Amino acid sequence: FFGSGSSSKSKRDVTSAAGNSDDIVIDRGDNGETTVIHAEYKPGDVVWAQLDGYPWWPALVCLHPTRNIYQDKYGIHVQYFDETRSRSWVKRSSVAKFNGKDDKHCSQGGKYSSKDPDVALAIEDAEEAFQMNDNIERLKLVACAPSEDEADSTGQNGKENSNSV
What we know:
The protein is of the alpha+beta class. 15% of the residues lie in helices and 25% in strands. The strands form two sheets. Strands 7-6-5-4-8 form a five-stranded antiparallel sheet. Residues 1-21 and 154-165 have low confidence and may be disordered.
């Protein structure tokens, strides 16, 4: 469902920027270019995410299973609150903070409202996670595993996972 998209094969080293834990450094490698970006979200945050052609969907920010990062200068890695726990990289402009199911934007006619019953179920799951108030507990909900292609590209023996990017 949300598992479509492409996986970047480039290597990026992500570390905390000196003096500011809210920033991360993206080291692009051989060309020497280094970019510092603000880390607005962190693993375990409940968010709204939208892929082109799909409605806004509740999701959980999480580490990519093979790249071991959750964001780069292009987007944020999320796992959706859907039946298959699919995942994808989402453009920064298509991610927003989840403020609970009673947020005015969730009500009929709001930015995140949908008549899709699967979205309604996802909102209930996201609300349950949101109420945890602890990102470490929320991260126990993550079921990301490398796809067969990702496992092959890293030399790992991975099992097939249709929920991959």
